[in-house]
Design a protein that fits this description.
By secondary structure, the protein is an alpha/beta fold. It has 2 domains: about 30 residues; about 375 residues, Alpha/Beta hydrolase fold, catalytic domain (Rossmann fold). Helix 6 packs parallel to helix 7 and helix 7 runs parallel beside helix 8.
Amino acid sequence: MKRVLKVLVKVFLIILLPVFTIILVRAFDARRMPALGVWHRASLDAEFKAGDYHENFTFQDYLRIEERLFKELGEEVYQKVEQTGALKFNRYSFRSPSNPQSFSRNWNRSYEFIPSKIRGGALFLHGLTDSPYSLRGVAEIFKQQGFYVLGLRIPGHGTIPAALTSVTWADWLAATKVGAAHVRKQIDKHSPFYVVGYSNGGALAVKYTLDAAQNSNLPMPQRLVLFSPAIGVSRLGAVADWHKILSFIPYFEKFKWTSIQPEYDPFKYNSFSKNAGDQIYHLTRKVQRQIDEVKRAGQIYKLPPILTFQSLVDSTVLIPAIIEKLHNKIENPNSELVIFDVNRHAPLKDFLASDHSKLLMQLEKRTDLPYKITVVTNASPDSLAIIAKTKMPRSKMFNNASLDLNWPRGLYSLSHVAIPVAPEDPVYGSGKQEGPISGLRLGSIEPRGERNILRVSVSQLMRLRYNPFFDYVKQRLTGVLSAETD
């Protein structure tokens, strides 16, 4: 017994003690982060949980919970926020132009688009820290093509950043099942049913579809449309929940957060909790394992074709995972991966850390890809004109098509958050749109001044928030939707 005790002590001293020391040092370091606000500390009890879900649970039940949730949000957050000039652009200040309630509609909440004649249905799943607003532009395209659209607010979103400190991916998936069942009931049994997912919503779309392949009681979509899907994320998510060792202590409460930022965006959290990173990591790992499971069971043929739009450079998701862990394993010849290349003629190209050509070269060489590949890129290295290079499944050659589009001045690439957003978007667009708008035009902010002065990182403000080639996305979606509803 004494020997066993000695061994355990040695293990603790050699392995656990250094690990705990590192955690303790980082916990103290976290205390230097900006002060927490009400929106970082409040607890909203009315949120939907996976435990609320059952087979007879309806979308109307979900909306009733959402109604109680936003009432609680007003009581526990908005009414407790001091109304001062210092909070002019804080979304939780009643008088702030960034208050989502100042818009004609609070797009943080679930919404429905109902066309005069319903030809199909689509469930829209937004990304992590986002809200249903992020896919609003794409939803409009579906509505114009006669699709009933449900823009679902995923649990933990649209309210306060603190909501993501306790949410689980099981909560997200349960809500997805509620939304899918509702959309399917709104359309004719012969009408097409789509699931559209952005970032974390892309992972949820794939997870739901895999579940539907294994459970016939879940309605199977006829197609998935994915924008910057989170099929793989950084392995740092595997240790994201280690903060729980200390963060329950009020002295170390900031240790729950990866970043604490001003909340000036009306439809997206700027602060990011470690639990959010932990949940998306485990969701993506589950998706990868389940794809293999479904493939081994010989059921991969049940999965519908997938149309994916992805930027070649993405600081949020792992692009090789989209290729190797999703499209290559689904092996659907009706699927397509659309990649938006970096600007090969950008004046700033000499400042880029890499030319990001390795992945494209690998895709060009491969002749075994079982799906279509399209690369949206410069017509030539000395041109800003854009073409679409398309290679059919298991083909060697790319065919080029002019798009009558050009790279805008000053842009060197797209970004993770830009793909589903139109330049005309009143919040995240280029700022060239006309007419009154509440809040900041976040897509057109160009800060200039001394370094290390701003409370928000310059990289966050500089990140492109809209897709200058959104017309191409619209063209592709319109073609697919019209073909399947004629």
